Amino acid sequence: MISRHFYARADETVIDALTHDPYAYPVALGCHACSHLTQCGGLCLKAPVFDCLDLCCNDPENCTRVCRKAPSARFVDQLREIDGFEFSNVPRAPRVTHKVQKDIVPLVYHGSGRVNMLVGDVFALRLTDVVNFRERTLKFADRASLCRAYRVPEDAQLILSGVNQDHRIEPWWTLGPARIGLIEKMHRIGIDLVTTPNFSVVLDQPRTDDMHALKRILIIFAEFAEGGRPLCASCPWSY
């Protein structure tokens, strides 16, 4: 398979071969008959692929990617959870504006190893670090307890970063409807800004998995905006 052929080559070569470039290459021949062409737009690659299924691992029983070669029930469930690949059916969210006082913000992982409070006006924390996923609630009842745990000033602006490795941010999606209640609690404890989880998009896999990730980013963006939280969308990079 073409994907296994790429695995043995340098990363730079893979990137060059699989990066979408509609100005340099035509749409892959198999894309024209694909039912997802309208949402995807097709692949224009240097690599000689018929369509994105050439990048399938062909091991559907052991693969968790969103792929048309997966068992039909699983693929249907994956489509249903995002209501299809279309962006147009995500509710329009209200515009929420907020000014962050700094261009560069330190990311604080924990409050251990320090006696005194950090000095600064703006701090970022990891979104998944403030959530108790087992109990489906926040780890902190109020802003004061959150700031004490991280040893940051209560009057500082607080940003929650959703940018992380996939295994750290996937639990946020699995919360389902409980996400709405957590967003409301973040609003009450005074979180100033949130960046949405950056579910990964990957070059050498079927495009449907990337489309699934992008739709989930948009859904979560809309949920935070509807909850009144200023936020910025994470821009996923293919790798």
Structural class assignment: alpha/beta
Strand content: 5-15%
Rounded mean pLDDT score: 88
Assign an overall shape: elongated
Radius of gyration: 21 Å
End-to-end distance: 19 Å
Number of helices: 8
Question: What composes the largest sheet?
Answer: 5 strands, parallel
Number of strands: 7
Order of SSEs, N→C? HHHHEEEEHEHHEHE
Number of domains: 2
Short key terms for the protein model shown above:
32% helix, elongated, 239 residues, disordered N terminus, 2 domains, alpha/beta, single chain, 8 helices
How does this structure look, described?
There is one protein chain. With 239 residues, this protein is an alpha/beta fold. The chain folds into 2 domains: 1-55, no CATH class; 107-232, no CATH class. 32% of the residues lie in helices and 9% in strands. The chain contains 8 helices and 7 strands, in the order H-H-H-H-E-E-E-E-H-E-H-H-E-H-E. It has helices at residues 2-7, 11-18, 37-40, 72-82, 143-150, 166-174, 178-188, 207-226, and strands at 107-108, 122-126, 131-132, 137-138, 157-161, 193-195, 231-232. The strands form 2 sheets. A 5-stranded parallel sheet has the order 1-2-5-6-7, with helices on one face. Strand 6, helix 8 (207-226) and strand 7 form a beta-alpha-beta unit. The longest helix has 20 residues, at 207-226. It is elongated. The chain starts with a helix and ends in a 7-residue tail after the last strand. Mean pLDDT is 88; it is low at 1-6.
